[in-house]
């Protein structure tokens, strides 16, 4: 029974995130008059549908994901045939490039808004929010790596870099902690400010009794603030800004080959969903918000098959003054799809390796 519930919770989470994303494209397309033939909840064979003024709203058999079929969206293999003649100005390719860009960004914006709404309402439910202090060292634990390296209380940590080249500039102590949690092995270089001078210190984290890597420093106290209906949106933004900063750092690292073994596919997301659900509804919805943010950021990657890449192609068209040839576009899309498939296969392989190990 637990497995069935977990599967349903996983399908609900992923469907909501993807449908919200596609709904963002739909809203923007309708604002600019682009003809939308179908908006689907789910994939695969159609179960039932209802025709709106001009758009068909459908539910399909596979209960995950969704799509919006826009006239002229030749890059979208899901575009279904349109049984009426659509004027060029009502197609995606027939509108001004800047409008096309806004439509492409609509999905990303909706993912960010979903994350903001969910986190803000969670904070409103808690009634309080813990504001992280600046990344000052309040104390150094004796006989731990930080003390041995020469770090002191009141040092301000302004940068941290791993041996693999991954680096981060923490704006708060919680950001520092979050980035340290991604440590795998090797020496860490901490850049600190002390008496208006910048110094670098090399430390090598050690495992504590709980199995986590630590360097032996503590930060200042968190400021507990009251949350209400007016300020929950601000604190929700503050929280998500920290998460987004770490996600962007991680994505940039992937292009450098850093952190590839931490990638997760559907199996990993399902396991995370199951674990979050077992810890309570608030943890589950927190994961939903973070995943929505994650998918929004991933879609912003300038890979042509993704929204970010299609924005880049449109910008190129604006610069050169004419559309990119279909032959070139098809070739770029094919390569992008192959790269994305390879990445998904790799991530799924990682999930299976973790599952059986």
Low-confidence stretches: none
The N- to C-terminal Cα distance equals: 25 Å
Shape category: globular
Number of strands: 12
Radius of gyration: 23 Å
Strand order of the largest sheet: 6-5-7-8
SSE ordering: HEEHEEHEEHEEEEEEHHHHH
Report the structural category.
alpha+beta
What does the oligomeric state look like here?
single chain
Helix content: 40-55%
The number of helical runs is: 9
The share of residues in extended strands comes to 15-25%
Average pLDDT figure: 89
Outline the biggest β-sheet: 4 strands, antiparallel
Write up what this structure looks like.
This protein is an alpha+beta fold and 357 residues long. It is 49% helix and 19% strand. The protein has helices at 2-31, 97-126, 145-149, 173-180, 232-255, 266-279, 281-299, 307-320, 326-356; strands at 36-51, 56-70, 128-131, 139-140, 156-161, 167-168, 188-194, 197-203, 206-207, 213-214, 217-218, 223-226. The strands form five sheets. The protein has a four-stranded antiparallel beta sheet. Strands 1-2 form a two-stranded antiparallel ribbon.
Short description, anyone?
The protein is an alpha+beta fold and 357 residues long. It has helices spanning 2-31, 97-126, 145-149, 173-180, 232-255, 266-279, 281-299, 307-320, 326-356, and strands spanning 36-51, 56-70, 128-131, 139-140, 156-161, 167-168, 188-194, 197-203, 206-207, 213-214, 217-218, 223-226. The longest helix is centred in the C-terminal third of the chain and has 31 residues, at 326-356.
């Amino acid at each position: 029974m637990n497995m069935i519930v977990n599967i349903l919770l996983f399908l609900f989470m992923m469907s909501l995130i993807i449908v919200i994303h596609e709904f963002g494209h739909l809203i923007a397309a309708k604002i600019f008059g682009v003809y939308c033939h179908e908006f689907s909840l789910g994939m695969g064979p159609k179960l039932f549908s209802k025709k709106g003024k001009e758009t068909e709203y459908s539910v399909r058999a596979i209960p995950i994901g969704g799509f919006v079929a826009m006239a002229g969206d030749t890059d979208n293999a899901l575009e279904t045939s349109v049984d009426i003649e659509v004027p060029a100005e009502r197609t995606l390719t027939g509108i001004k490039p800047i409008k096309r860009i806004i439509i492409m960004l609509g999905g990303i914006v909706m993912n960010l808004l979903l994350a903001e709404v969910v986190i803000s309402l969670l904070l409103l439910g808690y009634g309080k929010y813990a504001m992280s202090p600046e990344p000052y060292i309040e104390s150094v634990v004796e006989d731990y790596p930080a003390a041995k390296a020469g770090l002191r209380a009141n040092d301000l940590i302004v940068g941290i870099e791993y041996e693999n080249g991954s680096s981060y500039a923490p704006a708060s102590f919680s950001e520092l902690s979050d980035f340290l949690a991604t440590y795998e092995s090797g020496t860490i270089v901490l850049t600190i400010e002390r008496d208006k001078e910048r110094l670098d210190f090399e430390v090598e984290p050690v495992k504590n009794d709980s199995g986590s890597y630590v360097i032996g420093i503590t930060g200042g106290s968190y400021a507990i603030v009251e949350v209400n209906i007016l300020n929950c949106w601000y604190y929700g933004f503050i929280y998500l800004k920290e998460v987004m900063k770490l996600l962007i750092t991680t994505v940039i690292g992937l292009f450098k080959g850093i952190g590839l073994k931490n990638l997760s596919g559907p199996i990993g997301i399902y396991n995370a969903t199951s674990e979050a659900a077992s810890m309570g509804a608030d943890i589950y919805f927190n994961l939903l918000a973070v995943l929505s943010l994650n998918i929004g950021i991933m879609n912003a990657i300038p890979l042509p098959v993704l929204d970010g890449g299609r924005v880049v192609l449109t910008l190129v068209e604006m610069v050169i003054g004419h559309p990119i040839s279909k032959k070139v576009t098809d070739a770029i899309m094919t390569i992008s799809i192959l790269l994305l498939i390879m990445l998904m296969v790799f991530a799924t392989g990682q999930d299976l390796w973790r599952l059986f190990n």
